[in-house]
Amino acid sequence: ETTPSVDENEKTRFIVELEFVQCLANPFYLNFLAQHKLFEDESFINYLAYLQYWTKQEYARFIKYPHCLEYLKLLQDATFRKQLVAQHTARYIEDQQLRHWMTFIKNRSGGMEPPPTA
Q: Residue 94: which of 31, 2, 37 has the closest Cα?
């Protein structure tokens, strides 16, 4: 059995942290974390603070779901973390995300409605 190289370990860590940060774009995942009291765990809060490096341009360019970076910043606020326990908060955040995307699509398309989905 061979030990993974430092490069392999760093690549794995990068991928795992990237995936986790992007999961934060899902308001219902945030709700799940809050309901399972992870936002009350000081080591988890410290981990979220550590992950702030993803907001730097050299890392943010790998992010596919940019909302996750805003939520990562908001998770530094204890009040926001406490509010996430309520499922209606997750629904509200999801609604705001959808409204943003609809406005974004409309503005990018010059006012045209997006094509209907099948």
A: 31
HEC letters along the chain: CCCCCHHHHHHHHHHHHHHHHHHCCCHHHHHHHHHCCHHHCHHHHHHHHHHHHHHCHHHHCCCCCCHHHHHHHHCCCHHHHHHCCCHHHHHHHHHHHHHHHHHHHHHHCCCCCCCCCC
CA–CA distance, 82 with 84 (Å, rounded to integer): 5
**Token reading at 40:** 């009350």
Question: Distance between CA atoms of 17 and 19, rounded to whole angstroms?
Answer: 5
Q: In this predicted model, what pLDDT tens digit does every residue of 78-118 receive, in sequence order?
A: 999 999 999 988 887 887 877 766 675 566 656 555 566 76
pTM of the model: 0.77
